[in-house]
Write the structure tokens for this entry.
Amino acid sequence: MFVVVASILVLLQTGGLRERRVANIFRPLGTQAAHEYEIALFTFAITGAIFVIVAGLLFYIIWRFRHRPSDHNPDEPPQVYGSNQIEIAWTFIPILGVFVLIGVTSRFIFSLQDTTSQTPAERIRIVGHQWWWEVHYPDYGVVTANEIHIPVSGSTGRPVLLQLESADVIHSFWVPQLSGKTDLIPGRANTMWIDARAPGIYLGNCAEYCGTQHANMLLRVFAEPKPAYDNWIAAQRRSAQSDAAQSGRNVFESLSCVNCHTIRGTVAKGVFGPDLTHLMSRTTIAAGMLENTPKNLRDWVNDPQEMKPGSLMPSMKLTGAELNAIMSYLESLH
Ligand code: CUA
């Protein structure tokens, strides 16, 4: 019962953001999520029927053989201990039910993981980190973080193939309206198909406890019609084009920011933190925890530990002038 109640209450809410969206598992908008929803209803129907039969018999027997004070010769129920028919029936009927559910579920799981059955609309490689998502589009040399763009399936007729890896501990990729969970496991590459039938922003979350900031390891899938998606890819392929004063870039490049972050076209080539080449094209920062506003970005750069304790980005103890210079540079990275 607890599991049922917990499932109904799957509401993904995003910490510091003003917008509140619900990732509703009862309103699937992807092929995999729709299959899982159907299997869940089928399982619920079978187990629900078992519950009604067993509970019904239980209440009937409690009522039928209840104690009556006036009854000096109460009904003795028929004794069935050792009855072969009953033993066989209540052994095989549940086993049959379990095998039907195994069959239905495994057929779906194999189709989900079958990478040879169709040509993907796009291939995306996702690497889980404590506590953010590294997102690669290997066919275009594009790298971004936490916000995944895909073409809607109506515009390509095909789903997107994800390759899921981890840089540290086990994470789990979950965008409830598009598909169920798949783990990101160190030393292993898992695959899964996703597609979105309608354009929109689909909220997801890391679904495997991975440390202090597990709950703030959010992700967003932006499903767009193919032309809009192609425009996004074209913009992301470009190297960083900054119209900011050179001083901002100089300050950034003189600090240890460059050891962890990449900005394509500059000396910043670090790979431990998110790629910042097109930072301002993302709507959120800190793995979906905060809206990407100038104030949030400034507070974040000034002291990440204040906003997301345990995050691997340290406070750089910047002076006000350094912070101003870095902000002017970051805000130019469109
Ligand atoms: Cu990553 Cu939980």
Summary: Confidence is low (pLDDT under 50) at residues 5-20. The chain is about 35% helix and 20% strand.
